[in-house]
Design goal:
CATH superfamily: NAD(P)-binding Rossmann-like Domain
Structural class: alpha/beta
CATH architecture: 3-Layer(aba) Sandwich
Radius of gyration: 18 Å
Order of helices and strands: HHEHEHEHEHEHHEEHEHHEEH
Keywords: Oxidoreductase
CATH topology: Rossmann fold
Helix content: 40-55%
Shape: globular
Strand content: 5-15%
CATH class: Alpha Beta
Distance between the termini: 34 Å
Pfam families: adh_short
Strand order of the largest sheet: 3-2-1-4-5-6-9-10
Family: Belongs to the short-chain dehydrogenases/reductases (SDR) family.
Largest sheet: 8 strands, mixed
GO molecular function, one term: oxidoreductase activity
Organism: Mycena venus
Length: about 325
C-alpha cells in the first residue's frame, strides 16, 4: 500500500478512514474530551472503528454531553466515561485504579487535556496548576496505566502513548526544573508556564520511548492553532495578541500563523496514535500528520533534559517509573 498523503488541511476523519484497519478492535483512552475541543473530535472519529473509547473529564455534566453527542451520531459506539482531574495526584490515582479494574487492555493512551492558561495557582499537592495538569498528572497516569498498556502488546501491536504538545514550545527556554519543583508566584508568567509544559510533553515522549525499549511507543505533536474552548479562557487572548496569533480585537489572525479547524486540529493526534509507518520512529514529534523532528527546539529534544525532567517528575509523584 502506498503511503497516504496528508497535509495542513487533512481532517481527523480522513486520517481515521485511512487507518480504519489499525483502529479496529483497539481500546483507547483520551483525556480532555469536552464538546468543541480536539479531544472530543478525536474520540468521535475513532468511535466509528474502535472497540472501546474511554473519554475523560473532571466535569461529569460535560462528560455526559460528550458521551451522548457521540452516541447520537454513532449508536454502535462503545463509550465509557471516566472522571479524571489531572491537577490532583489523588484523583489521578483514583481514575487509574478504575481503568485498571476494567477487563480490557489499553492499546492507546492520548494525553490531550490542558489546563486553562491563567494566573498562578497552586494545586492541593503544592504544584503549579498548569504543570500539574499538563505534565505531572499525565506522567503519573501513564505510569499507573503502563501495565494495562503492556497487556495490549502483541507481535503485531505495540501500545502507544500520545502527547498533544504545541509548536509554541519554541517560545520558551525549556522547562525550569527549579520552579517545577518549587513553584514561584513571583516569576510566573502564564503563557511561558504553558509553553514549558509543552516542552515537557515532547521530552516525556522521547524518554518514555527510550526507557520502555520498544515495549511502548510514545509520540508528541503540534495539533495546529485552533479556536477551541481553551482559547476563550484565562490569559490566553492577551498572550496570543502579543504573539500576533490574534488581532487587537481578539479575533484569529493568520498574519503570521494560519489557523486550523477542529477537525483539522485533531488529525495529527489520530495519525500519531495509529499510523503504522511510525512504528520504527518511537519518540517522534509530528506536525500536519507527519514526523517533524527537525522542527523541535534543541531544549525540547535534548536527551539530558529529558532524563533530568523524568527523574524530577518521579520525585514529585513519589514513585519511580520503570519497566
Amino acid at each position: 500500500m502506498s503511503q497516504p498523503t496528508f497535509s495542513f488541511t487533512t481532517t481527523a476523519q480522513e486520517v481515521a478512514t485511512v487507518f480504519a484497519k489499525e483502529i479496529q478492535g483497539k481500546n483507547v483512552l483520551i483525556t480532555g474530551t469536552s464538546v468543541n475541543g480536539i479531544g472530543f473530535e478525536t474520540a468521535r472519529v475513532l468511535a466509528k472503528h474502535a472497540n472501546l473509547i474511554i473519554i475523560t473529564g473532571h466535569n461529569s455534566e460535560r462528560l455526559k454531553i460528550a458521551e451522548d453527542t457521540i452516541k447520537r451520531e454513532i449508536p454502535s459506539a462503545n463509550i465509557r466515561p471516566l472522571i479524571l482531574d489531572l491537577s490532583s495526584l489523588a484523583a489521578v490515582r483514583k481514575a487509574a485504579a478504575e481503568v485498571n479494574a476494567f477487563p480490557e487492555p489499553l492499546h492507546v493512551l492520548i494525553h490531550n487535556a490542558a489546563a486553562t492558561i491563567g494566573p498562578f495557582k497552586l494545586t492541593a499537592d503544592n504544584l503549579e496548576n498548569q504543570a500539574a495538569t499538563n505534565h505531572i498528572g499525565p506522567f503519573l497516569l501513564t505510569k499507573l496505566l503502563s501495565a494495562k498498556l503492556l497487556a495490549a502488546r502483541t507481535a503485531h501491536c505495540t501500545p502507544r502513548v500520545v502527547f498533544v504538545s504545541a509548536k509554541g514550545h519554541i517560545f520558551c527556554n525549556g522547562v525550569n526544573l527549579t520552579t517545577l519543583e518549587r513553584p514561584d508566584p513571583g516569576s510566573h508568567e502564564s503563557m511561558d508556564a504553558y509553553f514549558q509544559t509543552k516542552v515537557a510533553n515532547i521530552l516525556t515522549g522521547i524518554e518514555l520511548s527510550k526507557r520502555s525499549k520498544g515495549q511502548i511507543n510514545a509520540y508528541s505533536l503540534h495539533p495546529g492553532i485552533i479556536l477551541t474552548n481553551i482559547m476563550h479562557k484565562g490569559d490566553v487572548v492577551a498572550g496570543l495578541k502579543k504573539l500576533e496569533i490574534m488581532d487587537e480585537d481578539g479575533r484569529p489572525s493568520d498574519k503570521k500563523y494560519p489557523w486550523k479547524t477542529i477537525p483539522q486540529g485533531a488529525a495529527t493526534t489520530v495519525a500519531a496514535a495509529f499510523d503504522p509507518s511510525l512504528n520504527d520512529k518511537p519518540g517522534a514529534y509530528l506536525d500536519d500528520c507527519v514526523e517533524a523532528n527537525d522542527t523541535i527546539s534543541p531544549h525540547a529534544s535534548d536527551s539530558g533534559n529529558a532524563e533530568r525532567l523524568w527523574s524530577l517528575t518521579e520525585r514529585l509523584i513519589g514513585e519511580s517509573f520503570t519497566f
